[in-house]
């Protein structure tokens, strides 16, 4: 092996946890699932922080995630099954295998489609603008996909063509995907690592360059994500050895990468024309969230010079007509006989 070659982890690392179950059986917890779960958590927390800073209600991301995550999983499985029909539809095939996602088989492009549908539904319910959420999510998506790719390493799968590069990936000879005729010890392109690096660079470009110099709102940050991911996935898909459906001589996932690039360009061009100004709120008009009044921020006079904090039942005493809304600064010189702001 080359001195810098990347070893595949021991097979037992693919299922590091076994939960005891009925009748002495165990439920295996796969490393791939843990990687996906870690990605979902990181994306959710990061998106929540970004969206809250833009004026959204804290925790509202969870209301959207309960729609987006399940539909994203359904979409990932459906896309995989439809693009690998020979693995699931043949004489004697078990039809229930189509839904057994725990046996492996999911696709990022399908997750984007299914998750996007879930986000749209949830945004209609919560009042959050779809594009506001998508922009807040963009770097988290890249982070989640980077973490998820570690699952391919644990599973010894989705590697690229043979290579003599010193950082080639070691794959065991008895791996079902090992090309026939190649000698044991052949190294392969570590496509999982390339995609991780590409996604991390994309995060840096978006967060530390584009968003600091340009107004990446109204869907523009998400458009960048689609372009960036598509540009990276295109060449990586071309060197992968795993079987895939071919359409007009091109792998289906390359078509999907081209579609992502085109869609990202269209989103940016259209939204630049439709929304050249700032995005003032992540909510649709009429659906805005107003932070609750903090009783410690207001005091009232009891008539004898003593001051007492308002409790939640006294908030009607503030704002009798010319009072500033909760959390808003007073105009210079404004007074009130009912209270004052600390």
TrEMBL record:
Main subcellular location of this protein, as a coarse class: membrane
Region (Disordered): 289-342
Primary enzyme class: transferase
Compartments (UniProt record): Cell membrane
Transmembrane segments: 29-48, 60-79, 99-123, 130-148, 192-210, 222-241, 253-270
Gene Ontology terms: cellular component: plasma membrane
Residues that bind a 1,2-diacyl-sn-glycero-3-phospho-(1'-sn-glycerol): 149
Pathway: Protein modification; lipoprotein biosynthesis (diacylglyceryl transfer)
Topology in the lipid bilayer: Multi-pass membrane protein
Entry protein name: Phosphatidylglycerol--prolipoprotein diacylglyceryl transferase
């Amino acid at each position: 092996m080359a001195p810098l070659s990347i070893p595949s982890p021991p097979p037992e690392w693919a299922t590091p946890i076994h939960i005891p179950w009925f009748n002495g059986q165990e439920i295996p917890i796969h490393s791939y699932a843990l990687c996906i779960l870690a990605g979902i958590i990181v994306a959710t927390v990061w998106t929540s922080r970004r969206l809250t800073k833009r004026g959204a209600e804290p925790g509202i991301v969870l209301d959207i995630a309960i729609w987006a995550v399940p539909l994203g999983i359904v979409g990932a499985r459906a896309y995989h099954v439809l693009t690998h029909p020979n693995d699931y539809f043949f004489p004697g095939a078990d039809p229930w295998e189509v839904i057994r996602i725990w046996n492996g088989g999911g696709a990022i492009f399908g997750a984007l489609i299914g998750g996007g549908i879930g986000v749209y539904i949830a945004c209609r319910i919560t009042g959050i603008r779809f594009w506001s959420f998508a922009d807040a999510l963009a770097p988290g998506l890249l982070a989640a996909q980077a973490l998820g790719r570690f699952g391919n390493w644990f599973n010894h799968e989705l590697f690229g063509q043979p290579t003599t590069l010193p950082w080639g990936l070691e794959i065991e000879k008895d791996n079902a995907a090992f090309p026939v005729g190649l000698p044991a010890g052949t190294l392969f392109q570590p496509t999982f690592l390339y995609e991780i690096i590409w996604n991390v660079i994309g995060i840096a470009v978006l967060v530390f360059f584009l968003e600091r110099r340009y107004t990446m709102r109204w869907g523009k940050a998400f458009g960048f994500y689609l372009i960036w991911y598509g540009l990276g996935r295109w060449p990586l898909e071309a060197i992968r050895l795993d079987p895939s459906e071919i359409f007009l001589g091109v792998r289906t996932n390359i078509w999907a990468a081209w579609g992502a690039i085109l869609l990202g360009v269209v989103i940016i061009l259209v939204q630049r024309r439709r929304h050249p100004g700032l995005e003032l709120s992540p909510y649709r008009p009429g659906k805005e969230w107003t932070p609750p009044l903090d009783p410690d921020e207001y005091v009232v006079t009891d008539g004898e010079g003593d001051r007492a904090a308002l409790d939640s039942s006294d908030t009607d005493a503030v704002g009798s007509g010319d009072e500033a809304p909760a959390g808003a600064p007073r105009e210079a010189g404004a007074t009130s006989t009912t209270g004052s702001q600390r």
